């Protein structure tokens, strides 16, 4: 597959539909193109909020309103590739950002990028890959390989399945779904995760906390790691897993699930190993200069 930039260069000379320069705020859009259902949709938007919804039609429909920094919106396709790209004027802007809704074939691949842009994606059944600098990313009711990257924005994954990879800086990650494989890396931000639907999951955080709930599936492999961050795992009595916990350089291990107690070794290292139920799955927790807490869900309910 050609790269995104090759695609942009190609369509600079072969565009089939280029909307004219936008001259005023509040420009309303309602444009559509016939496309192949198994193609690739590229969205390049420097500012605003983009909602992407999958549907059964072999068509891409763009609806919404552009702000007054908008210069030119390119909406074009060639064979299996479709591009939606906004060029803006280089000036400071005060006011509402562009708001667009893009309806696309649910079986098409989605590739998106932004700067001060939020994306809300739902109802797709193929791969999703995107990044933004300062904006929130949400994926819901979708399946496939989901790859997201964000700086200074939150990520929310819910009611989805497949494979997921997330990289986040200084934002909250909220995750749930039925995934074969999950990799989440966060720096200076907390991660909230329901692990009950994951077969293989790794959460890694630097200067952020991991807040985890959900039972471990049979044969699942769960790994939680923090540096300068705490790990909190809230679970009910149905936990069926081998548990390996390690805290180094001053952190505590607080086990409120069973009567097992941690042992302390050299270099301020504490470890705890125990089996809950039959040990059908495995969960490993490691922290450096952080604490680990495991407690029952019902204990939270009693304190509320």
Q: What order do the helices and strands come in, and which of them pair?
A:
Blueprint: H1 4-14, E1 27-34, E2 40-55, E3 59-66, E4 70-78, E5 81-88, E6 99-105, E7 109-122, E8 128-132, E9 137-140, E10 143-151, E11 155-169, E12 173-187, E13 191-194, E14 198-206, E15 210-213, E16 221-227, E17 231-235, E18 241-248, E19 253-255, E20 263-265, E21 269-276, E22 281-288, E23 292-296, H2 297-303
Parallel strand pairs: 2-5, 2-6, 2-7, 7-8, 7-9, 8-10, 9-11, 10-11, 11-12, 12-13, 12-14, 13-15, 14-16, 15-17, 16-22, 17-23, 18-22, 19-23
Antiparallel strand pairs: 1-3, 3-6, 4-5, 18-21, 20-21
Descriptive terms for the model:
5-stranded parallel barrel; 304 residues; mainly beta; disordered N terminus
Which structural class fits the helix and strand makeup?
mainly beta
Tally the helices: 2
Q: Specify Rg, calculated over alpha carbons.
A: 23 Å
Task: Note the overall shape.
Answer: elongated
Largest sheet: 5 strands, parallel, barrel
Distance between the termini: 53 Å
Q: Fraction of residues in helices? A: under 10%
- Major sheet: order of its strands? 7-8-10-11-9
Strand content: over 45%
In short:
This protein is mainly beta and 304 residues long. The protein has helices at residues 4-14, 297-303; strands at residues 27-34, 40-55, 59-66, 70-78, 81-88, 99-105, 109-122, 128-132, 137-140, 143-151, 155-169, 173-187, 191-194, 198-206, 210-213, 221-227, 231-235, 241-248, 253-255, 263-265, 269-276, 281-288, 292-296. It has a five-stranded parallel β-barrel with strand order 7-8-10-11-9.
């Amino acid at each position: 597959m050609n790269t995104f930039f090759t695609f942009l260069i190609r369509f600079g000379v072969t565009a089939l539909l280029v909307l004219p320069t936008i001259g005023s705020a509040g420009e309303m859009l309602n444009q559509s193109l016939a496309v192949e259902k198994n193609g690739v949709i590229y969205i390049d938007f420097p500012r605003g909020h983009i909602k992407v919804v999958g549907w059964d039609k072999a068509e891409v429909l763009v609806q919404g309103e552009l702000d007054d920094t908008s210069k030119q919106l390119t909406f074009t396709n060639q064979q299996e590739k479709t591009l939606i790209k906004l060029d803006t004027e280089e000036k400071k802007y005060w006011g509402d950002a562009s708001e667009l809704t893009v309806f696309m074939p649910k079986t098409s691949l989605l590739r998106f990028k932004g700067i001060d842009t939020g994306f809300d994606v739902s109802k797709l059944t193929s791969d999703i890959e995107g990044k933004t600098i300062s904006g929130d990313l949400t994926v819901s009711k979708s399946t496939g390989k989901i790859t997201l990257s964000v700086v200074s924005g939150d990520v929310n994954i819910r009611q989805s399945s497949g494979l997921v990879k997330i990289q986040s800086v200084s934002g909250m990650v909220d995750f749930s779904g039925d995934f074969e494989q999950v990799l989440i890396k966060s720096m200076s931000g907390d991660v909230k995760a329901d692990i009950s639907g994951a077969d293989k999951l790794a959460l890694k955080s630097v200067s952020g906390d991991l807040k985890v709930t959900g039972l471990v599936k049979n044969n699942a492999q769960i790994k939680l790691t923090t540096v300068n961050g705490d790990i909190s795992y809230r679970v009910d009595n149905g936990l069926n897993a081998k548990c390996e916990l390690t805290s180094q350089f001053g952190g505590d291990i607080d086990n409120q699930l069973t009567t097992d107690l941690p042992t302390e070794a050299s270099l301020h290292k504490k470890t705890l190993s125990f089996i809950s139920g039959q040990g059908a799955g495995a969960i490993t927790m490691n922290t450096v200069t952080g604490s680990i807490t495991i407690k029952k869900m019902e204990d939270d309910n009693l304190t509320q």
